[in-house]
Amino acid sequence: MKQLIECVPNFSEGQDMSLIKQITDEIEKIEGVKLLDVDPGKATNRTVVTFVGTPESVVEAAFQAIKKAGQVIDMSKHHGEHPRFGATDVCPFVPIADITMEETAAYAHRLAARVGKELEIPVYCYENAAFTPERRNLANCRAGEYEGLPDKLKDPKWKPDFGPAKFNPHTGAIAIGARDFLVAYNVNLNTTSTRRANAVAFDIREKGRPEREGNPVTGKKKLDANGNEIWIPGALKACKAIGWFIEEYGIAQISINLTNISITPVHIAFEETCDKARERGMRVTGSELVGLIPKKAMIDAGKYFLEKQNRSTGISEEEIIKIAVKSLGLDDLKPFNPKEKVIEYLLEDPSREKLISMTCKGFANETASESPAPGGGSVSAYIGALGISLATMVANLSSHKAGWDDRWKEFSDWADKGQRIKDELLFLVDEDTRAFNRIMDAFGLPKGSDEEKAARSSAIQEATKYAIDIPFRTMKRAYESMEIIQAMAETGNPNSVSDAGVGALCARSAVIGAYLNVKINASGVKDKEFLEKILNEADEIVEKTKIKESDILQIVQSKIS
Fold first, then answer.
1. Which residues contact 437 (CB under 8 A, 6 or more apart)?
2. Domain count, the chain
3. How many beta carbons lie within 10 A of that of residue 361, not counting itself?
4. Banded model confidence at residue 96, pLDDT cuts 50, 70, 90
5. Strand 174-178 vs strand 88-97: parallel, antiparallel, or unpaired?
6. Which runs of E-coded beta strand occur in 190-233?
7. Which of 82, 275, 413, 551 is catalytic?
8. Greatest Cα-to-Cα distance within the chain, rounded to the nearest angstrom
9. Are residues 147 and 75 in contact, defined by beta-carbon separation less than 8 angstroms?
10. In CATH, what number is assigned to the domain containing residue 125?
11. pTM confidence score
12. How many helices (H) and strands (E) does the chain have?
């Protein structure tokens, strides 16, 4: 896996999209990065841009974007609801794949040094790229905002980490950092009062509110023995929040930054906000996602709300995310398309799901064509996916069968297992064809010199091993599915027992069909130790599958008769 960094610069322009287009054009010019999202806000007059790529490419793309923003955005004329102090206000790097936070911070420092030297913009490094504890918090770096910069830059305590300690009225300053994945999330209220929205924000945010004498709003702030303000912490860890009024929507919102969603997930922040708003006489009408979100956060939210309803969580990923969208009210203000907001979906390569994206008719026609792929391996994986899908259906039907309400979790757990196996078998449908193509590519390598012949031979051997391993994985997953199929035949909704029986027949066909593909590819492999291990285990799986199929069909026949 190659190293990947996400970059989420926030530009102080959200109304003139022609200016933002000039900036994003600079990003898209850089090879090795992919622009994922452009999310403008009119009231905040701010646009959040998200792109991902290899570290060197991300540094270059971020530099060019910051350079262009400094040319086209005039901070002396900027007004907006969101705190800001620069044309490119913040530019965080986020580790995505095969890279540590320390390495990510080093790349942030490289960008910061270049921005400070070549563009002469004052740079503050924050979060995991901070050089001092005080500067870890973005709010400290940005305190005073753009209007306070002239005085701030004169203070030796706030000398920039890079760049001149000199006020540039056109560009302002910039905060460059490295952080965990941050979810920017707004919760909508049925009020227009910023003060009341702020009260809820103080209730939930980790920092909380200052403790006061007498009146909790206007009373004198309490101090400790050292003269420092005493703060009452809010309900949620790793949560920053403020309230504001959004002219565009005509409502007040609570603007939330969740800095660690493994500590405070989105759905918990939403639920806590609902509770605190209700206590203050308000109602949450929905929420809004700014920028992108990891798929896991949406899946966790969907499953959370399903479990609150005592509903099975063993449904398709698409259905779980649909539940999350509706439960969080993410479509309250405008349509919400997961394909445009979930980061993993934006990184997907459509060509990797060529077969399973087809219609049933299309898949059959493709298989029946004169092309050698898809072949028996892909068909075996697909048969296996259908078999476990039937068992998962029985589990889901059983989870909400009338009179079985106390058993919903039992069947939900079975359905969850079934969905995981189904998803892997669907992946193997296309992967079997890719394995075949790898063999063809290896045979097409040049074979003139001795070195080329050796490289070609090695490539053929590795590709053939992979072409054995893929159907072998199909065998293992299809056999694993028979545990669920048998459980559904024994304990599931009796009206669906025949579906479990058909699932067993599919699973058996998937195992034996994949076994044939393991065997036919084995003849070309020279690594005898590898072959012996695979074939011995494959033979064992075939025999256990036949026994398991017989057991399941006996159960089915006894219940039908």
1. 373
2. 3
3. 8
4. confident
5. parallel
6. 209-210, 231-232
7. 82
8. 90
9. no
10. 3.30.990.10
11. 0.80
12. 17, 13
Catalytic-labelled residue, pool 180, 300, 432, 499: 432
Which has the minimum average pLDDT: 114-123, 213-222, 475-484? Answer: 213-222
Task: State yes or no: is 170 an active-site residue.
Answer: no
Range of the domain at 542: 353-560
Give every CB contact of residue 168 below 8 A, 6+ residues apart in sequence. Answer: 120, 121, 122
Q: Which residues contact 480 (CB under 8 A, 6 or more apart)?
A: 421
Residue 432 known to be catalytic: yes
Do 279 and 418 lie in one domain? The reply is no
Q: What percentage of the chain reaches a pLDDT higher than 70?
A: 100
Strand spans (E) along 190-266: 209-210, 231-232, 239-246, 251-258
Backbone angles phi, psi at 395, to 5 degrees: -65, -45
Tokens 């709010």 belong to 139
**DSSP state, 495?**
G
Of 208, 233, 210, 234, give the one whose Cα is nearest residue 223: 210
Which tokens belong to 525? Answer: 């492999």
Tens-digit pLDDT profile for residues 229-266: 999 999 999 999 999 999 989 999 999 999 889 899 99
Within 194-351, where are the H helices? 194-204, 266-279, 295-308, 317-328, 338-341, 343-347
